[in-house]
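Protein in question quoted in full.
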Amino acid sequence: MSDLKEKLKRQTEILGLCLQPDHALSQADLQVLFKRDRPTITRDLSSLRSIGVDIHSTKHCVSVENKLTLKVLNEIILQYVGLNYSEFSYDKATTSLVKRQKEKALSNIVMLQRAIDSGTLAIIDYEKEPGKVETGKTIAPWILFQGDNEWRVLAENDGIQKQYILSKVRKITPTRKKFQKPPQEQLREVFSSAWNAWLGGEKKYQIRIAFSPEAMRRYGHRQFVETQEFRKKPDGSAVLEATVNSLFEVAGWIVSHSQWVEALEPAELRGTVRQLAEQALHTHREERTA
């Protein structure tokens, strides 16, 4: 591990240890734990303060005076996980992209990220369907993300918010033409109502799903969508209420878990579940002979 990675990892671990309740550590304790001298630990604390962590050392302990913001916590955890699992990890989205595109996978990600950082338009050739390549599509790339085990780019094309799967991007041509990047809060809003990978569309749906006690044991800990809230009942069952931007993805999940969950509202969601279930039954109605 490089010196920089080791330093970032140590600083995050110092913070994590000092956040433990009823487990006070002094600066001397940290020196022993991390096998570093006092000036190094002092610099680590200073670095943490520089990113918004109100951490200070007294005679008896090192403590965090004020609660961390959710933004800072997210950034620190993502960085720490990345440091620990970068040397060995199995990321289906990345593995799949590299297998299909080889060196072009890295080239495309770099060019798109540079366009995102600089706020410049990019021109892509995109294979929407096998053998059907749409050339010269001008996009304003907003953010790279993973969904359904695929790397994707959320972008604007002809005034419409869309997402493109990177493994289907055949060519990227950078431009110098600027676009107005959306604020972070707008991007957060886009993701907050996504059940899975679907991020488009302004329409929102209020949904209610009944979870049996068995479903709660299996999935009650899971964050399906940021807007969700479980209304728990005495028998161990619950009703999940949430705002989502696509009923189709929710319906697909319900069908695959229908022995434990039931769509309650809206009626359109129940109808979509029935339609998907009937299609599945029709497909699997008879035994295959070959």
